[in-house]
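Q: Hi! Curious about what Helix-turn-helix transcriptional regulator looks like structurally. Here's the sequence.
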Amino acid sequence: MIMKTETKPQETCPVKITIDLISGKWKPNILYYLGEDTQRFGQLQRKIPSISRRVLTLQLKELERDYLIQRKAYLSPLKVEYSLTQEGRSLIPILISMKQWGEVYLASR
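A: Let's find out. The predicted structure is below.
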């Protein structure tokens, strides 16, 4: 009798984990702009004009939940800033490579 061996779940694939963390229509854009500097909500919304407030809020919460960004709230004056964590900063070379690949791809079309 042949026994079926169990395969490892997809979640153990490092590529899939990376893609899952940065997937979402706007997450790469958000991470890329936060790689430039700390940003406030309104600054991010101006840099990504097609994103709705609701979607930006949800994407920021997911990135914070996954420890890729950090949120810092100030009381005086009342403001909230977002910045990359160490894990988030480690994604910047990947995002830059993706940007460069995209530029070459677009130029070849």
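A: A fun detail: The longest strand covers residues 69-74.
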